[in-house]
Amino acid sequence: MNYKNIYRTVFVGAALCMATGCESYLDTSLDTYQTDETIATNRGTIWSFANAFYAPMGNGFSMLDDNLFAPASDEAMATSASSNASYFNKGAITPATNPISNLYKNYYEGIRAANYFLDYVKDGKGEALLALNRDTVSGRPDYLKDLASLNWYKAEAHIAKAYYYTELLKMYGGVPIVEETYEQVGNKMIARSSYDDVVDYIVNEIDTYKDQLAVNWDDFSDREGRFTLGAALAIKARALLYAASPLNNPTNDVEKWKKAAEAAKDIIDNPDLGYSLASDYGNYFLNDTPLSSSETIIAVRRGASNSLESKNYPIATPGGASGVTPSHNLVSAYEYIGAQDPDDPYLNRDPRLKATIVTNGSNWNGYTMAQAPGERFDMNAANASRTGYYLKKFLVDNLNLIQGQNARHHWIAYRYAEVLLNYAEAMNQAYGPDDNNGYSLTAREALQLVRDRASTSLPAVVTTDRDEFNEAVKHERRIELAFEDHRYWDLLRWKDAMTVLNEPIQGVKITKTGGKYNYETVTVGTRKFLERNYRMPFSRGEIANSNDVLVQNEGY
Predict the structure, then answer these.
(1) What is the pLDDT of residues 48-103, one digit of tens each?
(2) CA-CA distance, 455 to 464, in Å (whole number)?
(3) Which helix (H) or strand (E) covers residue 498, if one does?
(4) Is the pLDDT of residue 5 over 50?
């Protein structure tokens, strides 16, 4: 973030969206040829400004190498040896080399756009502009609708800032809090606030403006994708969970866990929000299903494309590039729900395995996956999966990439299953597995809801030990939220990364003798994580532009 130019133009947010191909359903385009005079007399510009602060919202489908972030963690391996995931895998992130450093600028652009909008409509200017050049008597229904929208959008701008600061916190720790537009801030340099101060800012923004948000968009379907009450509460719950976690709560202050539990409870115990788990885990992530599901809290809506499939279909599928391939580290974590089959290690497993990962012998894109030497998906072929697995979650089966067939893919930023897991973790840390503290659910009951949706045949979590139950919650997050850009950041906030992200990545070597497949666990990649990597480094440019007011994270 260049402090001298943080608010250099109101049009950047829209340009950013177009440049990164975010394909937002919100109209974030602005007329860059407008003058101050035409802006002041065009009320439609209000809506453009109210959309612009959504443009930089994260889209996890293009987080790293224009693909998922999973290869930065132990979830997956990048097929390409030149993947930017290697910087994470080798502990090589530096102030000069960070493949996701663009997010810092993007998120501050979102904050800038929100501040600009709030400044543009403050002190009655927005209301006056809405009344300009219209008959507010004969056209009163439309006028009142516009006023209601303006009030919602003001609140949404504050929630947008809370969202962006939550994302910045998980990467950098404490960051500068900017509440002014460029015209107001001028050349003033802004120092970092502490982690806890940024959390307090996020919570205050949400608590102050949450009651001014729409509960849902049932009567305004064209506004789906904007922040609602549920979205604001979910952002707060995640921010407080991270704040209570070992990385950010080294003294294990139990009051922080209690606040995180209460924040998640406010979603679970609010019947007006109407959230519940989708009945079918696998189908939930496909096509337009997330947009109508009661599980979705907020999704980043995208236009139809086949980029996800073309990057991640097996190389032997016409148009596929293998891309992100799941690790055996992850696959081996899926529990058995029946007897183990010595000939098929993927039989009788947690159904989320089949919904998430393409395994040998499964059907995909009209073929049976056969990866032994000489078979169609031979692992020895150039650019084939080195792990013996391919990604299935999010991908639509059997798209004809050669003919350019497309499908919808919407990035689910927050969903109800995560809220239940946030609650289970915080409640256990605050009160133990079975004390509900007067709330509607215990930690165990919340965890069980997520597991039962997957399969009522999963082994029961019976431990009453708080530490053991915490491990069960960690396991459940790993499985339930796989490839949704949680794993890497979970390992960091739990302070588990120094152990887990220094372990090798495993795959399976598949051979076939006498018509029977054999599976040998092999190491397919090494990983290196340094203590300093618990925080991202600020770029050299950001440090220089701040005249060294911005203090670098330790170790860089």
Answers:
(1) 999 999 999 989 999 999 999 999 999 999 999 999 999 999 999 999 999 999 99
(2) 22
(3) helix 497-500
(4) no
Q: Which residues contact 186 (CB under 8 A, 6 or more apart)?
A: none
Which DSSP state fits 15?
H
> Does the pLDDT at position 11 exceed 80?
no
**pTM: predicted TM-score of the whole model, two decimal places:** 0.93
Distance CA 240, CA 287 (A): 31
**Distance (Å, whole) CA 193 – CA 177:** 7
AA letter at 284:
Y
Largest pairwise CA distance in the chain: 84
Cα 228 from Cα 437, distance rounded (Å): 27
- State the SS3 of 128-190: HHHHCCCCCCCCHHHHHHHHHHHHHHHHHHHHHHHHHHHHHHHHHCCCCCCCCCHHHHCCCCC
DSSP 459: P
Residue 514 in tokens: 């006498």
Q: What pLDDT, on a 0 to 100 scale, did the predictor assign at position 514?
A: 93
Q: Please state the rounded mean pLDDT for residues 366-376.
A: 97
Whether 178 and 190 have beta carbons less than 8 Å apart is answered as yes
46 vs 127, 130, 322, CA distance in Å? 10, 9, 44
| Three-class secondary structure assignment of 415-442 | EHHHHHHHHHHHHHHHHCCCCCCCCCCC
| Structure-token match 């943080």, residue found | 6
3-class state of residue 358 by DSSP: strand
C-alpha distances out from residue 522 to 88, 312, 325, 326, 457, Å: 21, 22, 15, 14, 30
Structure tokens at 471: 């491990």
C-alpha distances in angstroms, 414 versus 3, 286, 323, 418? 31, 16, 25, 7
| 151-154 contacts at long range (C-beta below 8 A, 24 or more positions apart) | 151/212, 152/212, 152/213, 152/214, 152/226, 153/46, 153/47, 153/50, 153/117, 153/226, 154/117, 154/118, 154/121, 154/126, 154/209, 154/212
Q: Which domains does the chain have, with CATH numbers?
A: 228-303+413-480 (1.25.40.900)
Where b means 16+ CB within 10 Å and e means fewer, 483-505 reads: bbbbbbbbbbbbeebeebbeeeb
Confidence tier at 219 by pLDDT (50, 70, 90): confident
Task: Give CA angle at 237 (234, 241), nearest 5°.
Answer: 140
